[in-house]
UniProtKB/TrEMBL annotation:
Domain Sulfatase N-terminal, residue spans: 39-350
Pfam families: Sulfatase
Family: Belongs to the sulfatase family.
Leader peptide range in chain numbering: 1-25
Alphabetical list of InterPro entries matching this protein: Alkaline_phosphatase_core_sf, Sulfatase_CS, Sulfatase_N, TAT_signal
One MF term in the entry's GO annotations: hydrolase activity
Source domain of life: Bacteria
Region (Disordered): 207-240
UniProt name for this protein: Arylsulfatase A-like enzyme
Keyword Signal belongs to the record: yes
Matches recorded under PROSITE patterns: SULFATASE_1, TAT
């Protein structure tokens, strides 16, 4: 069920009107009505967390799902860590922010990030955990006032840059990050500025090392799904035909991911309790998302970076009681990581400069996209792995093209751009993407599926920006 959402502008207008009515009834003046304080912003980003993992995060779901909004069609526009995180922080597709792969984090323009704009608007900004792939731990993250940046990303006894000092902190990294984040929130008891907090644990990224209390925790049985491992892949691209993942592989990955997520759930609960203790829960906008999904041997693939649903769909929650996001409803709109920055800007009343065009849209309003672009670039010319691809996704269908294209050492696409392979799936009747309707299709059949129009739209979307972006 889609829900009516409340933007900060609507919230302020309603609050001001109520204040004016109250003041008038009491014989006062409109000047006595004060607008509500700007909300705190909490963004929690997990690493490689697919959907269907809620068993391991009951406290998170109980807070943000049952007392917030669940986006049932939440996507990562690029199912890879650094591009996705750059989209979260900028509200832009990877083809616009330039971080097309994990090797290209240096291409991010930090002047266009959420943390820069909120910092300049008077917010206290904090980062705890993973920032961007390949980030040198000795480099301070721009526009963050306080931080404990983990690099390289490890589960135990990690190296952190803590406010400019590099040190080893003993212990399980999810717990270390939790403790640091809670202390950041505690400091708001004496620092009255609103805050922006970005919390990014390693979990459940491989090697999926669970904390000691959870390393042998039994998890619910799982028999796979029709796409695991899909014995007949003759209609799939070559790298999927050659994939070797089995149901046993999928079960093992799932078990390990769930066990690491149990610690994430503990961390989220500790943060919630601190917000309650400080009286800040009501006016804190909380956004929880996985940076990309992950396949549990779907189509024989045991990774990410592919256009199939388990790779591009992610858990996605919002909660903001003061903004009306506390109903426990499901929102079925096509929502993506590119919508996070616009949502934050809408809630805080901050407007980015014209040079930083947003591709996403605020989720606090009623905007409803008809389609979404997902995209991925192959880095280098090595063998194996998916080719560069882009995909048109809407509520009922998905059309994907693979290209003769790769990124060079600077992250710039190079190659002929020729289309190497195409896929089309009926997501209503074939949600597990078993039958590629373009495999051996005739021109007449392609015409009946609307492929020429979809191909033209996808070509436009791949270079779109701002108002023209899907």
């Amino acid at each position: 069920m889609d829900i009516p959402t409340v933007s900060r502008r609507t919230l302020i207008a309603g609050t001001a009107a109520a204040g004016l009515a109250s003041a008038t009834a009491a014989g006062g003046t409109a000047a006595s009505a004060a607008p509500p304080a700007r909300p705190n912003i909490l963004v929690i980003v997990t690493d490689d967390q697919p959907k269907n993992t809620s068993w391991a995060t009951p406290k998170t779901v109980g807070w943000l799902g049952d007392q917030g909004v669940t986006f049932t069609r939440g996507y990562a526009a690029t199912p890879l860590c650094a591009p996705s995180r750059s989209s979260i922080l900028t509200g832009r597709y990877a083809h616009n922010h330039g971080v097309r792969g994990n090797q290209h984090s240096e291409n991010l323009d930090h002047s266009g990030t959420v943390q820069r704009y909120l910092h300049d608007a008077g917010y206290r900004t904090g980062l705890y955990g993973k920032f961007l792939n390949g980030w040198d731990v000795h480099d301070n993250p721009p526009h963050f006032d306080e931080y404990a940046l983990l690099a390289p990303i490890t589960y135990n006894d990690g190296t952190y840059n803590v406010n400019g000092t590099v040190k080893t902190i003993a212990g399980y990294s999810t717990t270390v990050i939790k403790n640091q984040a809670v202390k950041f929130i505690e400091r708001s008891a004496t620092d009255t500025r609103p805050w922006f907090l970005y919390v990014a644990p390693k979990a459940p990224h491989g090697p999926n090392t669970a904390d000691t209390p959870y390393e042998n925790t039994p998890v619910p049985a799982w028999k796979g799904r029709p796409s695991v491992p899909e014995a007949d892949r003759s209609d799939k691209p070559g790298f999927i035909k050659n994939a070797t993942g089995t149901l046993a592989d999928g079960k093992a990955i799932r078990t390990a991911q769930l066990r690491t997520l149990l610690s994430v759930d503990d961390a989220v609960e500790a943060i919630r309790q601190k917000l309650v203790a400080l009286g800040q829960l009501d006016n804190t906008l909380v956004i929880f998302i996985g940076d990309n999904g992950y396949t549990w041997a779907d189509h024989g693939w045991t990774k990410k970076s592919v256009p199939y649903t388990p790779s591009i769909q992610v858990p996605f929650y919002l909660s903001w009681p003061a903004g009306g996001l506390d109903t426990g409803a499901d929102d079925g709109r096509l929502a993506a990581n590119i919508d996070i920055a616009p949502t934050i800007f809408d809630a805080t009343g901050v407007t980015p400069g014209p040079q930083h065009v947003l591709d996403g849209h605020s989720l606090l309003g009623s905007h409803r996209r008809t389609r979404l672009l997902t995209e991925f670039w192959k880095h280098g010319t090595g063998a194996g792995g998916p080719n560069t691809w882009s995909s048109y996704v809407d509520a009922t269908r998905q059309y994907t093209e693979y290209y003769q294209l790769h990124t060079d050492a600077n992250g710039i696409p190079t190659g002929t751009g020729a289309v190497l392979f195409r896929e089309y799936y009926d997501l209503v009747n074939d949600p597990h993407q078993l039958t590629n309707l373009l495999y051996q299709a005739t021109p007449a059949q392609e015409q009946a599926l609307g492929i020429p129009a979809l191909a033209a739209q996808l070509a436009a979307d791949r270079t779109s920006s701002g108002a023209t972006a899907p």
